[in-house]
Every structure is written in structure tokens, then in C-alpha cells.
Amino acid sequence: MQEERQQKEKENKEWLSTIIQILVVILIVVLLRTFVIGTIYVKGSSMEPNFHHGDFLVINKLEVYLSTPRKGDVIICRLDNDGNKENIIKRVIGTSGDEIDIRLDEYGVYQLYVNHVLIEEPYIAGPMTEKGNMTYPFVVPEGHYFVMGDNRNASTDSRRTSIGAIADKDVIGHVTLRLYPFDSISVME
User: Fold this and answer.
1) Active site includes 90?
2) Which one of 8, 43, 90, 155 is the catalytic residue?
3) Does the pLDDT value for residue 1 go beyond 70?
4) Torsion angle of alpha carbons 11, 12, 15, 17, nearest 10°?
5) Distance (Å, rounded) from C-alpha 20 to C-alpha 28?
6) Which of these, 62, 31, 48, lies nearest to 176 by C-alpha position?
7) How many angstroms separate the CA atoms of 52 and 180, rounded?
8) Residue 34: pLDDT above 80?
9) Has 131 been annotated as catalytic?
């Protein structure tokens, strides 16, 4: 009888230990997904030719707590457009205090200037043919980012007054890895 009770107590302790281990693993996974890493599917063509509809990306959420996005970074932003909340992928063009200007050149193409310097953008899909309805020059407010899609002619971004500059609190993370499609797996800079 004593042996049976000891065996039962041992089994109960093992079950309790297993349950505690499972709960710790679940807690760690939840904390990692909430504060460290995330995933997102690209929707639409606004970031072509660099990211395509259906690409599956890993984002670094921790980085936004430790540092601020830099010009050229591809980030995921939370957008609340008339009550419709969505996450968007865009490239950081300007940070707090930067002066953004989009000017029409002699060929009818819009050129991007940041702090009076023409920006060479080899990563965009093609010449920019629209500047949005933002008034230029535009100075990026403190704690905000001016973001644009790489496919400038198919992107709704900071060039629209309905979106404007993205607040620091709305930056979710920095794109760090493309996992799908498998033939395009790559680490982002």
C-alpha cells in the first residue's frame, strides 16, 4: 500500500513537472511572438520588384524597442485608415526633421529629394509618375517616418495626406528574412 502511494505521488509529480514545462514553453513562445519576432504575408504590389504578393516575411519586433528605423529600412507599420486597421510594408524614406520634396523633372518624372539631395533609388520598380496629394516640401515631424512603397506608382503611402508620416508607435518591426517563396529565401539588410 505504501509503495502504491509513493508510486502515485511520483506519477503526479511527473505530470505536474510536464505541465509546468509545457506552460513555460507556451509562455516563452508568446513572449517571443509578441516582443521579438513576427511574420507577415505581403499583400498587393506596392513593394515590387523587391517583395511580391504572397511573400512570407519574418520581422524583428525587438529592434523597434532598441533602436529607431533608418532611411532605407523596410518596415511593417500599423495603419488605421478610417477605422480599418491593417499592417503595411513600406521603405523608410525620411526620419524626424528630414525635409522631403518631390519635384517634376524636365522629362515629366517625379524625383525624390531628401534634405535638398536627389536620392538615387535603384530598388524602385520604375520612374515615379505621381507625387500624391501631400504638400511639398514636407518636414517629417518628431517621432515620425516618411515611408513609401518601392512600386511608387502602385503604392498608397506617406505621399497621401490620408496616411501621412507614420508615428513611431505604429512601427511594428523591421523586415529581416524572406521565408517564402522557397526559391527566394533571403536575409534582408
Assistant:
1) yes
2) 90
3) no
4) -110
5) 12
6) 62
7) 10
8) no
9) no
Beta strands 74-81 and 84-94 are antiparallel
Q: Is 161 exposed, middle or buried (0-12, 13-18, 19+ CB in 10 A)?
A: exposed
Supply the pLDDT for residue 54.
Answer: 93
Which residue shows C-alpha cell 501631400? 134
Do 69 and 87 touch, CB atoms closer than 8 A?
no
CA separation for the pair 135, 25 (Å, rounded): 51
Question: Of the candidates 147, 144, 131, which has an alpha carbon nearest to the alpha carbon of residue 93?
Answer: 147
Catalytic annotation, pick one of 46, 61, 155, 158: 46
What is the β-pairing status of strands 171-180 and 74-81? antiparallel
Under 8 Å CB-to-CB from 35, ≥6 apart: which residues? Answer: 61, 62, 65
At 88-143, the pLDDT tens digits run 999 999 999 999 999 999 988 999 999 999 999 999 988 999 899 999 999 999 99
How far apart are alpha carbons 186 and 132 in whole angstroms? Answer: 32
Residue 189 pLDDT class (50, 70, 90 cuts): low
d(CA 52, CA 49): 7
Using alpha carbons only, how large is the chain's radius of gyration in Å?
23
Q: Please write the tens of the pLDDT for every residue from 37-88.
A: 888 899 999 999 999 999 999 999 988 888 899 999 999 999 876 777 889 9
Q: Looking up cell 495626406, which residue turns up?
A: 161
Q: Which residues face 173 on adjacent strands?
A: 76
